[in-house]
Amino acid sequence: MGYRTDSESQSTEGIREERFTIESGSNVAIAVPSSPATDAERPGQAAPTAGAVRTAGAVRTAGTVREERNGLIDGPIAPTLWRLAIPLAFGFIINGVYAWINMYFVSRLGDTAIAAIGFSDQINMTVFTIGSGFCIGTGIIVARRIGEGRSRQASAIATQAFSFMALYATAAAAILYVAIPHVLVLLQLRGEMLELTRAYQLTILFGLPANLLTFQANASIRSTGNTMFPMMVAITCAIVNALLDPVLIFGLLGMPKLGVQGAAIATTTAQWVGVVIATAALYSGRLNFRLHRPTVRFNRDVITSIFRLGVPSSLQSLSVSMARVILISVVNLFGTAAVAAYTIGLRVDVLVMMPVFATAIAIETLVSQNIGARRFDRVHAFRITARRHLLLVVAATGLLIYLFAGSLADIFTNDPRVAALTVRYLHIAVPGYLLFVIGQTATRALSGAGHSLRSLGITAAVLWFLQIPLAYLLARYTTLGETGIFIGITVSYLLFASISTYAVRGSRWMMKTV
Fold it and tell me: I need a surface site. Which of 155, 216, 240, 377 has the fewest CB within 10 A?
């Protein structure tokens, strides 16, 4: 999908409507604040030279996005990779700490409260991933346009996507608020577990629009090579959450004691703080990327192209989330202690995988921009370098977790059975971390090249045809019990690593047009 700028622009009350036409023939109108600099960019006139470009009262260097692009397609491999990945990793770690803070305070309410948060987290991840694929699709296309040197078209696409996400997220939250109580009953929740999960889940839905819009904003920002700003937003949200959690959960400073619902209110408040910061920065022009005036005049080809790339990514994440929901339902067959242990183990998993997820997003951006710039040699180099470095990091982290699994379990529970099951889970999970690194770096490279559907196929096949059946069979039809679930998860990552590595052999996978 490509863009060209038509020869016509309309200006009304300081707002210039610039029309970008897709190569298929349709066009998209984006309202751009008029200024002497932007007017000079109209077809038939000289483009602005190096120097400052005035946008909405702010001075922005004309070459900022171009400089970011050149760094990603010409810079040394390892430093360029980690310049993107390290801030992302810190941002992910902060998000992981964010979840740990909730878990730490909620764990003081008992094992049932921990289990309720565990169920709710899996539902929330499922709900979030339905919309997050659209953000991922936006990021891939925006990064490809920047790699091609067409930053104005990238801004137009990001504007359409952000406006669409605002409407989508609000509608989704409203529908889910009505549906969630029925979903919890279908998941066989009863008694106190049902009440706690419902209280937490219905409250957290008020933050869904903020959560998705922040992710949408950050996806566009990261596509330019700026990963510092999303990290700062994550830090700010984590601080707000950490301050509010004890106050609202335990009723400090004269506030009512709200228990698990207090944790949900703290998280929701932090999410809205994050989206206000991200949105204000994007529209103000203070970053190296700027959105134009919000619009409800959506271009079908733009939105369709984003969905074409984003839906498979969303379905891929959704398949993971749904698999987790099913697995935790199987774990629930063995009692509350097993669910609590599995939930604690997942918290540790997430923290370990933060550098992996961060580097995978960096790979996606780097692959997309370098394919756009026709630098195919660098695409392979980025993936191989990321895999090698991540294996070293995760191996070291996994060893520490294996050795200190008992101490980690004791942070969250005083129940000996929960602690013992948590240790067992972590000991079995550690080898799977290394296999997951190999698979994740390969599938994210595929997604960055535009092969989101292929990446989806690999992930879904492993989860639904191996991980879930194997975990269930080992748990129900052997003497392993809940340990069989843990073994099934780790064994499935071996197939994930093998298939993913095979999919990125050669160079043909890099030739897809997006």
Answer: 377
Sequence-distant (6+) residues with CB within 8 A of 262 are 245, 247, 248, 249, 250, 251
Backbone angles phi, psi at 22, to 5 degrees: -80, 150
**Tokens at residue 150, please?**
């067409």
Could you tell me the two tokens for 23? 């190569």
The secondary structure element, H or E, covering residue 10 is strand 3-12
Ordered DSSP codes for 293-359:
S--S---HHHHHHHHHHHHHHHHHHHHHHHHHHHHHHHHHTT-HHHHHHHHHHHHHHHHHHHHHHHH
Residue 179, helix vs strand vs coil? helix
Quick one: three-class SS letters along 216-276? Answer: HHHHHHHHCCCCHHHHHHHHHHHHHHHHHHHHHHHCCCCCCCCCHHHHHHHHHHHHHHHHH
Residue at 277: amino acid letter: I
φ, ψ (nearest 5 deg) of residue 9? -140, 150
Q: What are phi and psi of 62, to 5 degrees?
A: -60, -30
Q: Is 30 helix (H, G, I), strand (E, B) or coil?
A: strand
Cα 413 from chain centroid (whole Å): 29
Chain segment 385-439, per-residue pLDDT in tens = 999 999 999 999 999 999 999 998 988 888 899 999 999 999 999 999 999 999 9
* 85 exposure class (CB count in 10 Å sphere: 0-12, 13-18, 19+): buried
pLDDT one-digit tens code per residue, 205-255: 999 899 889 988 888 888 877 878 888 898 899 899 999 999 999 999 888
Per-residue pLDDT band for 47 (boundaries 50, 70, 90) equals very low
Contact 509, 450 (CB under 8 A): no
CB atoms within 10 A of CB 456: 23
Question: Between vectors from CA 118 to CA 115 and to CA 119, what angle results, nearest 5°?
Answer: 90
Element (H, E) at 53: strand 52-55
pLDDT of residue 187 exceeding 50: yes
Name the β-bridge partners of 18.
Answer: 9, 30
